[in-house]
Specification:
With about 230 residues, the chain is an all-alpha fold. The chain is built from seven helices and no strands. The protein starts with a helix and ends with a helix.
């Protein structure tokens, strides 16, 4: 299915090239240097448009970052196309007059394209880091939730549920400065898991209090970082 889609996309991309060249060479007889300069820039701008469409980020949640590049490429193609047509159908246009405007347009396009490309890369990187940070914090709550079916004592189960609620209601976004304390929490959750398997209620209560204290420290640090 994917191979068929790729073939159709290539076919659609070639339609413009084929139609443009057929109509162009049927309606023109003499081809000056200015003609070929315009011809080359039109094809280059169309090629850049296809690249922009093909390289829109495919990562879930980040595709939107590719849209400005497509808009820039569309604008460059349309401007280059119409400017190029003007110079193609004027036989006595000088080489400099045909070349200089195209170079200026291409320079503006290159500057805008590279600037937006760098901005997109930064946005995608930030989005990825944010998802990773949220996932890390959620994983702690998920680990606690998975422990609940293993707890048979109703009183102990209630206290573990309270621990889960406390972590689940905490700030989900993490920061690099929290790595040590979050690793400590995960380590204690592993210890809690073993204590639950051994049904050691005394150790369970002890670890629960330690984890609650660590969560409180984490929340306190988050407040300091965010302010």
């Amino acid at each position: 299915m994917e191979k068929k889609t790729n073939i159709l996309q290539i076919a659609l991309s070639l339609i413009f090239i084929v139609l443009f060249n057929v109509i162009l060479f049927l309606t023109t007889k003499e081809h000056s240097i200015a003609f070929w300069i315009s011809y080359g820039f039109i094809h280059f701008s169309y090629f850049m448009l296809l690249i922009s469409i093909a390289t829109v980020p495919k990562v879930k949640g980040s595709a939107v970052f590719g849209f400005p590049l497509i808009y820039i490429s569309w604008f460059y193609f349309l401007v280059t196309f119409f400017v190029g047509l003007i110079f193609m159908f004027f036989k006595y246009v000088s080489v400099n007059l045909a070349l200089i405007p195209q170079l200026i347009i291409a320079s503006f396009f290159a500057f805008s394209y590279i600037t937006h490309l760098l901005a997109n890369d930064h946005s995608i990187k930030s989005e990825k880091e944010s998802r990773e940070q949220i996932f890390y914090a959620k994983s702690i709550a998920s680990e606690l939730k998975l422990l609940l079916p293993s707890v048979h004592d109703p009183l102990v189960r209630k206290r573990i549920e309270n621990l889960y609620d406390t972590m689940n209601s905490s700030q989900i976004k993490s920061y690099p400065a929290l790595a040590e304390i979050e690793n400590h929490i995960l380590s204690k959750v592993e210890d809690l898991k073993r204590s639950i398997q051994e049904q050691d209620n005394t150790e369970i209560e002890k670890l629960r209090n330690i984890i609650l204290g660590l969560i409180a420290q984490r929340n306190s640090k988050i407040q300091m970082i965010s302010h």
